[in-house]
Amino acid sequence: GESVGLHLPTLSVQEGDNSIINCAYSNSASDYFIWYKQESGKGPQFIIDIRSNMDKRQGQRVTVLLNKTVKHLSLQIAATQPGDSAVYFCAENVDGSGNTGKLIFGQGTTLQVKP
Amino acid sequence: GAGVSQTPSNKVTEKGKYVELRCDPISGHTALYWYRQSLGQGPEFLIYFQGTGAADDSGLPNDRFFAVRPEGSVSTLKIQRTERGDSAVYLCASSLSGDPTAGELFFGEGSRLTVL
């Protein structure tokens, strides 16, 4: 069956270092992927997205890489700050038509930033 | 309002009781979603509304769960005969168009349901 998962449950980095959070997906028909950040007691917050016709997209301090060959997604955060500490989820759009709004989320990676 | 509003923020109930959870989406957003998040897990899709109609309810776990959006704005998730396994955070999200590839979903802070 289809699944979206993350390789590591917890990632600990030093403030100022770069962070890389990985995600594997199994549905080769998925055509849209999103990274969310979730702080304790809050709902997920959109970070960045990427369509399957791209392999890289950059935002402010964040970059998402998509490798369709191995069905792998990664989120890179440059110059990680204490405010980046949260749980990060990757999600994929299940319906290739993009009409349902249904997303499948991975289990999440906890990012801990040490001062 | 400025964001997606969910009430109550916390609900404790006893097994077998009926529960309603309310979501007030961002004004003007036609698409509304309910997700459920168990402890230590990612959110799981429950149902999606486009306007007043449920466009996709394939994520509802069984017929004890039902959701409505009678006027195309506020939505209520209803759970009958609650079970301990229903304990989770119920998240609501809205988006302008309903096409997730056209922009992000805006999530509320969730309603934490605890069934004793």
Describe the protein's architecture and organization.
The complex is a heterodimer of chains A (about 120) and B (about 120). With about 120 residues, chain A is an all-beta fold. Chain A has a single domain (about 5-115), classed as Immunoglobulin-like, CATH 2.60.40. Chain A is built from no helices and eleven strands. In chain A, the strands form two sheets. In chain A, strands 2, 4, 5, 9, 10 and 11 form a six-stranded mixed β-sheet that branches. The N and C termini of chain A lie far apart (about 40 Å). The mean pLDDT of chain A is about 90. Chain B has about 120 residues and is mostly beta strands. Chain B has a single domain, classed as Sandwich (Immunoglobulin-like), CATH 2.60.40. Chain B contains no helices and eleven strands. Chain B has strands spanning about 5, 10-15, 20-25, 30-35, 45-50, 55, 65-70, 75-80, 90-95, 105, 110-115. In chain B, the strands form two sheets. In chain B, strands 2, 4, 5, 6, 9, 10 and 11 form a seven-stranded mixed β-sheet that branches. In chain B, strands 1-3-8-7 form a four-stranded antiparallel β-sheet, with no helix packed on it. The radius of gyration of chain B is 13 Å and the shape is globular. Chain B starts with a strand and ends with a strand. The model of chain B has no long low-confidence stretch (mean pLDDT about 95). The interface of A and B includes residues 51, 101 and 105 of A.
